[in-house]
Amino acid sequence: MSSNDVKLVRFGIMGCAGIARKVSRAITLSPNATLYAISSRSFEKAQQFAIKNGLPNSVKLYGSYNELLDDDHVDVVYMPLPTSLHVKWATLAAERKKHVLLEKPTALCVADLDVILEACEANGVQFMDGSMWYHHPRTGKMKELLDDSKLFGQVKNINSSSSFIAPEGFFENDIRVKPDLDALGALGDAGWYCLGAILWAMNQKLPTTVTALPAIERNAAGVIMSCSASFHWEEDGTIATFYCSFYAHETMDLATSCSNGTMHFHDFIIPFQEQSARFSYTSDAKFADLHVGWNMKPQEVELASPLPQEAMMIQEFARLVENIRSGVGKPDSKWPQTSRATQLVLDAVRTSIELGFQPVRIFDQMEYGWTNLNVDGAVAGT
């Protein structure tokens, strides 16, 4: 099939948040997608978004979210809405047979996410969250190497951090500091990436125990501004830690230590450069004689990206949608399962915080559709 024969998947954006600017660009860059419509709570806001981002006049503008859902030409709805609105609008979109690309965090708790995922499954539509870094070629190459048991062995320790110094006005105006809009704060925003990265390194295997650490900071409304936690996989003997904050300098680090190698990169969420990204690793490294050095330097690997990682996310999502639309495939369960695992661990961190930093044991019976968070033998939440 030539590029002229590609049937474009039509995206509608529900909400004009800052991240929607980046994703609208990604949609225009993706070879199998087109930006079809923008909706906001008022026509004027949608119009301002279109003008500010130089969108063509062909993009339809709607002054309400329902108008977007009523448009039969919209194939996909991308939702950069406050987390508190996700259940309502993502469920409605799925019921209108719209595929759902949902910004992270996906929901305030796993029970809410399950409502969304059940609606998507019942209506045969694809679900994916907006974690763009999964779609970079670097991520795939790193996973290929990390899964090589001869090269790296078993994962033993993972450390991740995501933080930034909030810009002026952030703590007064941003939805991520308001309990009625995004009550998860830094945990749901920056922390979502850390939790996803840790589970990515563990092939989505849930930890046995999650323990939040006491070094936590909240704003006056009680929303988490900074927190950290540790994780333990009893069967594997693996441990992990993460740190997320709105108060610390920019970090996007992920370090994985295995029984026979290590892997590091410092820009896993947003690469330092759009066109390519690097990581380093060592395998079977030893100290030199007299411990005056090492027998090798870390190997540096650089991967070019044919498109920005957010455009590659759009391209992959559009490919899945077209396969469903043409009858070639069904919704890919990998993406909802990845989101649900991340949400489960996030819930466990939050539960541990609420219980005074007690360890929380996770038992996830995904095939039965229910989850228990167990603290010292007692059910702490479902």
Any descriptors?
2 domains; 18 strands; Rossmann fold; 382 residues; Dihydrodipicolinate Reductase, domain 2; 31% helix; twelve-stranded mixed sheet; alpha/beta; 27% strand; disordered C terminus; six-stranded parallel sheet
Low-confidence runs: 364-373, 375-382
- Measured between the Cα atoms of the first and last residue, the distance is 48 Å
| Number of spatially distinct domains | 2
Largest beta-sheet details: 12 strands, mixed
Oligomer classification: single chain
Rounded average pLDDT: 93
What is the global morphology? globular
How many runs of DSSP E, i.e. beta strands?
A: 18
What top-tier CATH class of the largest domain fits best?
Alpha Beta
Order of helices and strands: EHEHEHEHEHEHEHHHEEEEEEEEHHEEE
So how many helices? 11
- State Rg: 21 Å
Q: Strand pairing plus helix content: what structural class?
A: alpha/beta
Helix content: 25-40%
Describe this entry's structure for a reader:
The structure is a single chain. The chain is of the alpha/beta class and 382 residues long. Strands 7, 8, 9, 10, 11, 12, 13, 14, 15, 16, 17 and 18 form a 12-stranded mixed β-sheet that branches. Residues 364-373 and 375-382 have low confidence and may be disordered. Helix content is 31%, strand content 27%. It folds into 2 domains: 3-131, 3-Layer(aba) Sandwich (Rossmann fold), CATH 3.40.50.720; 134-309, 2-Layer Sandwich (Dihydrodipicolinate Reductase, domain 2), CATH 3.30.360.10. The chain has helices at residues 18-29, 43-52, 65-70, 86-95, 110-122, 137-146, 170-173, 185-188, 190-201, 309-325, 334-354, and strands at residues 9-14, 33-39, 60-62, 76-79, 99-102, 127-129, 155-163, 209-212, 217-218, 224-233, 238-245, 251-258, 261-265, 276-283, 299-304, 360-365, 370-375, 378-381. Residues 9-128 form the Gfo/Idh/MocA-like oxidoreductase N-terminal domain. It holds the Pfam family GFO_IDH_MocA. It comes from Lithospermum erythrorhizon.
